[in-house]
């Protein structure tokens, strides 16, 4: 699946392909896996996710990436590796691209996500259940882009991250209130969204 997201700004030095990881074992088991203690070493891609990545690479419909930067969680690392291997690119992990931490809800079923999202719609600063605030996620995700913009020019950089962080990032790039991040179209597993120079 492909989305195109063109910001109103013309300041971009690079093009970015924002990719959500493929369908994961956490998705399959309907679990919230957001802590590095669980997510870095376990809960990688499911068999569905593996096939999604085969299809994505075989039917690549985006500009060819020149760099791959990814969250160090297993599911994002495996996703990044499938694309990096296909284009013979090196991979760079960046902890700032990690999943949003869901605090006390870690390891519970994903039926709790809507509870957090309802609170997000009221405040981008809330940390009920010890959840990482939306504003904090936005700041770390934007910092990655800002650093990449300073480091290079004219590149096509694949950024592999997670659903909530990417939707929060896209909301921030659009200049909308962060409380509206769930109003963004849902990013499906293995989907890619283009931002930056056209």
UniProtKB/TrEMBL annotation:
SUPFAM superfamilies in alphabetical order: Phosphoglycerate mutase-like (SSF53254)
Annotated transmembrane regions: none
Classification via CDD domains: HP_PGM_like
Residues making up the signal peptide according to the UniProt record: none
Any matching Pfam family: His_Phos_1
Family annotation (InterPro entries): His_Pase_superF_clade-1, His_PPase_superfam
Domain of life: Bacteria
Positions that bind substrate: 20-27
Residue numbers annotated as active site: 21, 99
Protein name: Histidine phosphatase family protein
Organism: Vreelandella nanhaiensis
